[in-house]
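Posting this for the archive.
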Amino acid sequence: MQHASRAIAPEAVSALELTDLLMSGAITSMTATADGSWIIVPTVGPPALLTNPADIAAYIDRATKGTGPQALTPARTTLPARTATGPADDDAGCGCAPQPDTTTPADYGPDLMQARAILTLLTREFDINTHAVSAAYDQAAQAAVVRVQTRHGLYALHIPAVTMQFTVSRNGTRDGVIAARRVPATTDTSITLQFGAYLRDRGAL
């Protein structure tokens, strides 16, 4: 008897493969955008915008079969270099991490996937501009986060460990919690609606 195999979504595979590059030190950060693209900051060379699975596959192939981080320098699609205008804390608004963190857990791929799902729902349910939101791994908090830039500052919903409560920070400082825990019964939609209500209560939306 043949057992049914479970298909793995291509975007989940991409996130895990990019996570491997982050853990190896070839890249310093990976940020998901609302349209499903990835902004990658390599250890050497300019940032890259990967818009589809083919881009991601080619990028990973250069990193794993090329000459290490240097192989990522000729990125297929690059973004303008970001000019430093202040202290390192300024990077908190873009989801970038200036230095690789060797203590980053290797299994945060599912957390980032959930953050991306919440981000997508936020833009749809609350009509938030896609340029004002991002899903990324926060090196300081050691957690995947959904960031929303508002007129009252940068809010971030932290994806917690299983069974723990979802917390919210504002401009890098803990601001509060939403009435949801990360358990199987809690859906992404429920989390999104509560986070959106949290922002509205504070006049941020």
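DSSP finds four helices and eight strands in the chain. The first helix runs from residue 10 to 24.
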